[in-house]
UniProtKB/TrEMBL annotation:
Its main location: cytoplasm. UMP binds at G55, D75, T136, G137, N138, P139, Y140, F141, T142, T143. Its EC number is 2.7.4.22. It comes from Rhodalgimonas zhirmunskyi. This is Uridylate kinase. It is found in: Cytoplasm. ATP binds at K13, I14, S15, G16, G56, R60, T163, Y169, D172.
Length: 239
């Protein structure tokens, strides 16, 4: 029951790469399924869940533009990639009996709902998982910024950023055995130290809206539910 967590409404941000498993590209259905199960176990606590999924497992605008593609066109392709990921997650969640809506910043009515703020809020109140797709709908932004924007609009209490590691370290913990994890760190320090939590515009937006970011490991089974109940290791980015 909801008594196990103090959170009522949260944003879960994951990168597109979190869905590709060990393949190095695209969607790995068992991995999508595994993450859907993590989301379901939090949904069972009665928490209202927003999700933003990146598109980097399929296409990144910066990569396309580095290969000579016009930047804004490449960014739109990246946004379309996030829609594919959102649909995959929708399918996995609904297969588990969790009702969802995919809500796109760019209308594509045959595929999903357009973003209408008050309608999205209503879905959350009815305990439907809202998967926000197509980023912010604007080129030159990222899905980190989209997650922060939607979390602010939906009045989420925090953004949960699921990554491969269990928090923010002073240096890369994969290549540095002596890396130290921060328990908490300020938005300003994240910006000043150029720590790779989220991109700078997303960090600044979260800071200005007083929206904490909790960085945790998505590879830990039961990790998301544990973090919501105050267990496990993570880093909290706050003002
Ligand atoms: N994108 C964009 N505007 C947005 C969100 C995303 O143009 O508001 C594009 C951008 O090209 C980006 C791609 O979509 O590279 C995929 O998103 P992102 O890189 O954030 O995915 P992630 O790294 O989280 O998988």
């Amino acid at each position: 029951d909801a008594a196990q967590t103090k959170f009522k409404r949260v944003m879960l941000k994951i990168s597109g790469e979190a869905l590709m498993g060990d393949q190095g590209f695209g969607l790995h259905p068992p991995t999508v399924q595994r993450i859907a199960n993590e989301v379901k176990s939090v949904h069972e606590l009665g928490v209202e869940i927003c999700m933003v999924i990146g598109g980097g497992n399929i296409f990144r605008g910066l990569q396309g533009s580095a290969q000579g593609m016009e930047r804004t066109t490449a960014d739109y392709m990246g946004m379309l990639a996030t829609v594919m990921n959102a649909l995959a997650m929708q399918s996995a969640l609904e297969g588990l009996g969790v009702f969802t809506r995919v809500i796109s910043a760019i209308p594509m009515d045959q595929i999903c709902e357009p973003y209408i703020r008050r309608r999205a809020v209503r879905h959350l109140e009815k305990k439907r998982v809202c998967i926000f797709a197509a980023g912010t709908g604007n080129p030159y932004f990222t899905t980190d910024t989209a997650a922060t924007l939607r979390a602010s609009e939906m009045a989420c209490e925090a953004i949960f950023k699921g990554t491969k590691v269990d928090g923010v370290y002073d240096k890369d913990p994969v290549t540095n055995a002596d890396a130290v994890r921060f328990e908490t760190i300020s938005f300003d320090d994240v910006l000043a130290k150029h720590l790779k939590v989220m991109d700078a515009s997303a960090i600044a937006l979260a800071r200005d809206n007083n929206l904490p970011i909790i960085v945790f490991s998505l590879d830990e089974p039961g990790g998301f539910r544990g973090i919501l109940a105050g267990k496990g290791t993570y880093t909290k980015v706050v003002s």
